[in-house]
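Re: beginner question about structure tokens

> Can someone show what the tokenized structure looks like for a real chain? I only ever see the sequence side.

Sure, here's an example I had lying around. Input first:
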Amino acid sequence: MLQIRYFEEQVDQLYIRGEVHGTGHLYIGMEAVAVGAISALEKNDIITSTHRGHGHCIAKGADLKLMMAELLGKATGYSKGRGGSMHIADVSSGNLGANGIVGGGIPIATGAALAVKKMKTNQIVLCFFGDGATNQGVFHESINMASIWSLPIIYIIENNRYGMGFPVEKAVNIDKLSKRSAAYGIEGFTIDGNDVIEVYKTSAKLIKKIRDDSIPVILECDTYRWKGHSKMDAERYRTKEEVASWKKKCPIKKYKDYLLGEGILKPEEIEKIEKDVQAEITSATQFAKESPFPDPEEAIRDVYAQID
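And the corresponding structure tokens:
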């Protein structure tokens, strides 16, 4: 969670200084969802991500240097500097990638779940998406297919309260998005997405059940993004008081208090972890800045089009 938090804070500063171009969607405040769920996976299990994908990528074991290089548009990045923030993938670690289309990862994850079932590899697929994506047609189509085909997938709704700037309570007429599972004859659960232990324990339980029975499940994680929807967001749709109230529910502080309270870690041990992670981010940033930009002559390499 600290890797995600410090990485995103550094990316935020790089945007402010004009060193990263375009837009970006920060995961600050939501770290417990990605870390808790992905920590319950086996190494060869699969995830799909969203436009707000840095957290999922890091939690799945991505190289911070390659991620930072991609954001700075460098040739050493995961997508050779051509994809940027919303198109980072690390297939070698089971991360099929972020996606700039709202809900775009849902059919990809469903297809991956069908593939692993056909191949009998006993893998699990975690499909991350936001509350706004639950109103996309592809959400309903994909979950219906997963239900009738009994696919090994968890659809994880990261309910951060807003689809861009539109409050979730005005977008749906139910109090819990997980209730939509009833329409497809599968189970749905809603948990505290700011409690990494609860996310981990719930995910681990569901993953074991799915691995044994090959059934889809919807898991809604209630959380909150501290930053705007993107770097262009003026945040006129919410108050500073609301943001401050959610910051008091910080998932990292909550877990730190637990570790100290249970005597699992001492204050000096936590301080060392924080310093070590900060050093990782500094090293990743230096690597990215020192890396070369892609050769302009390589612009169309790996770009494919069908010609009739």
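Each token stands for a local structural state, so reading them left to right follows the chain. The chain is about 40% helix and 10% strand.
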